[in-house]
Amino acid sequence: YVTMELSAAQQRERGGFRRAAEVLGKQLRNLLPLKKEQSVLVAGLGNRAVTPDAIGPRALDHLVVTRHLVEQMPSFFSDFRSVSAISPGVLGITGLESAEVIGGVAEKSRPDCLIVVDALASRSLERICTTIQLADTGITPGSGINNAREAFNRERFGIPVIAVGVPTVVDLETLAQDYGGGLVSGEKLEAMCGGQKLIVTPRDIDARVEQMARLVSYGINL
Question: What pTM, to 2 d.p., does this model score?
């Protein structure tokens, strides 16, 4: 389990984006040592229509996919790793669990490993779009907002699964408890939220998500 920290100031530094992508690529290689001939499937989880949940699908926009090139034109692309990608959508739109979709694709394409990119819920505002969390134990989509779906891990897919997550939201209840020193009562929180479960995200989340999605995809490319 690795957490990369990248402050807003570091992201704006000259060469900061490039250095961050190189560090991410190095950390992924450490977590997932691959042989030259082994292939990778990258899954971008989340809902593209909901900006804080769009990290996964948008990361695929900048990913270099090569599986078709390696298979169809090996004389030109034999030095490239076979990389494929899919964004399975979300249950409310497709009627299918993301793990079901990825499982079917993996069964057909037979990748040697799976990299899953998803948005995360954070306990701290300071971590929103300033950290990238990597884990070799996979991920359970929706668990950060009490809507856990089927897990992505080695037990489910039979191959190594690396999770790449970027925090994009904070639960308001958690935020209030943390900044209130634990003194905010449940009744006060419920009244504050109107009985709803509220999630907080920055007003410039669209720009932040786009930048972090590019960073994640460049790191995977490297």
Answer: 0.86
pLDDT by residue (tens digit) across 130-146?
A: 999 999 988 877 555 55
Any idea what the Cα angle at residue 1 is, between residues 98 and 64, rounded to 5°? 55
The whole-angstrom separation of Cα 51 and Cα 209 is 7
Largest pairwise CA distance in the chain:
67
For β-strands 131-135 and 161-171, DSSP reports them as antiparallel
Cα separation, 144 vs 120, whole angstroms = 6
Amino acid letter at 193? Answer: C
Cα distances (angstroms) measured from residue 189 to each of 81, 102, 113, 179, 186: 51, 38, 43, 13, 5
Q: For 163-187, b where at least 16 C-beta lie within 10 A, e where not — what string? A: bbbbbbbbbbbebbbeeeeeebeee
Looking at residue 152, the DSSP 8-state letter turns out to be B
